[in-house]
Amino acid sequence: MVNFLVRRLLFMIPVALLVSFVTFMIIHLIPGDPARVLLGESATPQTVAALRHQLGLDKPLLTQYVLWLGQALHGNLGQSIQLQQPVTQAILQRLPVTAELGIISLVVSVALAIPLGVLAAGTRNTPIDWLINVLSLIGTSIPNFVLGLLLILFLAVVIRPFPPGGYVPFTQDPLANLRDLVLPVITLAAGAVAGNLRQVRASMIEVLSQDYIRTARAKGLRRGRVYFVHALRNALLPLLTIVGLQAGAILGGAVIIESIFLWPGVGLLAIQSILSKDYPVVQGVVLLSALSYMLVNLLVDVGYGALDPRISLGQSQ
Fold first, then answer.
1. Of the ranges 106-110, 127-131, 215-219, which one carries the lowest mean pLDDT score?
2. Whole-angstrom distance, CA of residue 23 vs CA of residue 256
3. With contact defined as beta carbons under 8 Å apart, do 102 and 269 qualify?
4. Which CATH architecture has domain 106-275?
5. Are 283 and 78 in contact (CB under 8 A)?
6. 187, exposed or middle or buried, with CB in 10 Å at 0-12, 13-18, 19+?
7. Which one of 159, 185, 199, 240 has the fewest CB atoms closer than 10 angstroms to its CB?
8. Contact (Cβ atoms closer than 8 angstroms) between residue 219 and residue 187
9. DSSP string covering 188-239, please?
10. What is the CB neighbour count within 10 angstroms for residue 148?
11. Ranges of each domain in the chain
12. Cβ partners under 8 Å of residue 266, min gap 6
């Protein structure tokens, strides 16, 4: 196990370097000048040139990247051009807000997908199974930004039980925080619920056809015990991979959801930074997203070994 973890952590280093390099080059190809955006259109060319020199934007791109990388290796992701604060500080201030939305959405998606998937597998080819499949197909087909706008229209404008956007910290007003969470969580979790329950259904149908399940049934075990004790553990292995990918994609999904609901997290920060050409912040958010993916994949592999003792991480990886 230790050797496996060391190898995976070492493998993350070149991946992070490659992601940071590609991202750095791509964001600098975006049309526009951060100095011009910061100073406004009325600024003179001399003032813009002076600010570009101050920010180091007049250096060759490769030189800028090497300088940024040297700072990043010491834990310094640079200074935000627009916010005038360290990038690490700007991200850490907003990360708990995004984590709250993402973690709750992930928990909701799994909590709904498992019982619905088991129910669909247990009632295969019945009206209940067809209804669950239709709902999952609808959840998969509707883009999350369309679903978010529809929820705002009907539940925040027409019926008005929930606010159309905004955020209140839980420590300030718990009820207001939970009310603000409802629409963003539904929007972010809908597609995940649909995909997860389809995976659980398919895995359960396959596991329920195994010999040891027939043996458990022949022993007279109750149906619920057969499903949730004997079958579900093996059926959850493929779901673990999907949930891991979804957890790694929290930042990516939050970019759209936070923009729709004005959720002041890392996703909204990324959008604002792209529009204002705030290169250091965009670079920091993308690097954080890449590291999140790699860490979650590592945890998924470890989880496989915990759920299935037949998997030996030290030999198979």
1. 215-219
2. 19
3. no
4. Orthogonal Bundle (1.10)
5. yes
6. buried
7. 159
8. no
9. HHHHHHHHHHHHHHHHHHHHHTSHHHHHHHHTT--HHHIIIIIIHHHHHHHH
10. 23
11. 106-275
12. 91, 94, 95, 97, 98, 251, 254, 258, 285, 288
What amino acid is encoded at 75 in this protein? G
Q: Write the pLDDT tens digit of every residue in 202-224.
A: 888 888 888 888 888 788 778 77
Under DSSP, the state recorded for 265 is S
Q: Label residue 117 exposed, middle or buried (CB < 10 Å: 0-12, 13-18, 19+).
A: buried
Residue 229 has what DSSP assignment?
I
Kindly provide the b/e burial profile for residues 299-314, where b requires at least 16 CB atoms within 10 angstroms of the residue's own CB: ebbebbbeeeeeeebe
Supply φ then ψ for residue 79, to 5 degrees. Answer: -110, 130
Query: Could you tell me if 16 and 287 are in contact, meaning their C-beta atoms sit under 8 angstroms apart?
Result: yes
**Mean predicted confidence (pLDDT) in 146-161:** 90
The residue with tokens 């597609």 is: 191
SS (H, E, C) 99-160: HHHHHHHHHHHHHHHHHHHHHHHHCCCCHHHHHHHHHHHHHHHCCHHHHHHHHHHHHHHHCC
Nearest to 253 by CA among 236, 240, 270, 241: 270
